[in-house]
Amino acid sequence: MKRIQFIWVYVVFFTAFAVILSGCSSDASIAFAEINLNNNIANNHCVYKGEVYIDKYKLVDNKLTVVCDELDSTVSEGGTVDISVEALTCDEEYIYYLISDWSYIDKEVKIQGAILRYDGSDAFEIARWDRPLSGSNNRSLKLQGEYIYFFCENSNGSNNICRVNIDIGGTETLSENNTETLYTGIFFIGGDVLVQYGNNLYRTDLEHLSALELTAERLLIENIRRMYMNDGSIYFIRASENNDMMNMYSFDLTDNEEKLLIENVSSILFQFIGDNIYYAKPDLEEIGRVMIDGKETIVYNQYHGSLYRYNISSGETNAVVNDFDIVFDELYNVSDDYILALAYTNEQYVSAVNGVSPQYMLVPTDGSEAIILEMGA
């Protein structure tokens, strides 16, 4: 049996406002639409005061520069401090960063987590804890009122639902989880809280978040892989019957009915803009062979650089771009002329198993050569 090497990277929860990028081409600017993607995975992109932020970087004139000193990794005679942005989100006043802080100073290793608030000039710490962030824990941030909601890891190997006041700080645990099942998402709609526990979604409130209280009576949707909230409606990804492909469904919170929208989709590459859903399909084609552990492994191009647009009102689907030299890894934003993404060329994708990283790109929808964003000083 052939072994298939996949590259899976989580994508993004987006909270953003309208943005216009200048200087992305010699004779025109790129107008990106207002977006507000709200999903159950960590976001690493936002638009703050009209400017694009990705991970620890700010995009200016096709260059990505580190936002501020508090997010910059440092190497000195005293030791090394490595800052990794796990998630970010923003409102009109601030950007909020969830970070991992790895330090090796005087032969002592410390791994901590923190939430920072950035005002456009400086970053201020509003919460910190002496526990590393594991890969299994959901790292999304949700702004609701005067709080940021997130998931804290606990000593049981699972996670708790926590929140921090964005003005005065201080971490508060809302629900302790003594089970092996993880909380995997939290959403707010009206006075209700939608909690994803494992692969199931429950409708409850802040007073009944405990796993023991997430009973069958509160169960809303079963077997969710990815979930999105858009314009008051739920959209989610579920494996097809043969479990080889993914399908997207909508869910009406009024009558609790689900509807199949799109078949054969990627589970991670989605963006909602206005009345349209942008998505990738896992069209597999062999693009190379490499040796892994002494065995020849076939590497497949998972997305072909194909991006589609589904109109929610009409149900119509159109191809936005079909670039066979681009493999999308993360999708940030879409304009009429460009796609802002983390991506590989086919050659890079074949080499990815040997440590080649994807690059931040502006991919033209007309099929012309992609613009690779430079790393500035």
Can you put this structure into words, describing what you see?
This protein has 377 residues and is mostly beta strands. It has one helix and 37 strands. The chain has a six-stranded mixed beta sheet, with no helix packed on it. The chain has a five-stranded antiparallel beta sheet with strand order 5-23-24-25-26, with no helix packed on it. Strands 10-11-12-13-14 form a five-stranded antiparallel beta sheet, with no helix packed on it. A hairpin with a 2-residue loop joins strand 23 (226-230) and strand 24. The protein starts with a strand and ends with a strand. Residues 1-28 have low confidence and may be disordered.
SSE layout and pairing:
Blueprint: E1 4-5, E2 14-15, E3 19-21, E4 30-32, E5 38-39, E6 45-48, E7 51-54, E8 57-60, E9 63-66, E10 74-76, E11 79-90, E12 95-105, E13 108-118, E14 123-129, E15 142-144, E16 147-153, E17 159-165, E18 169-175, E19 183-189, E20 192-197, E21 200-204, E22 219-221, E23 226-230, E24 233-239, E25 246-252, E26 257-265, E27 270-273, E28 276-279, E29 285-292, E30 295-301, E31 306-311, E32 317-322, E33 326-334, E34 338-345, H1 346-351, E35 359-364, E36 371-372, E37 374-375
Parallel strand pairs: 1-30, 2-6, 9-37
Antiparallel strand pairs: 3-4, 5-23, 6-7, 7-8, 8-9, 10-11, 11-12, 12-13, 13-14, 15-16, 16-17, 17-18, 19-20, 20-21, 21-22, 23-24, 24-25, 25-26, 27-28, 28-31, 29-30, 31-32, 33-34, 34-35, 35-36
What can be said about this structure in brief?
The protein is mostly beta strands. It has one helix at residues 346-351; strands at residues 4-5, 14-15, 19-21, 30-32, 38-39, 45-48, 51-54, 57-60, 63-66, 74-76, 79-90, 95-105, 108-118, 123-129, 142-144, 147-153, 159-165, 169-175, 183-189, 192-197, 200-204, 219-221, 226-230, 233-239, 246-252, 257-265, 270-273, 276-279, 285-292, 295-301, 306-311, 317-322, 326-334, 338-345, 359-364, 371-372, 374-375. The chain is globular, with a radius of gyration of 21 Å.
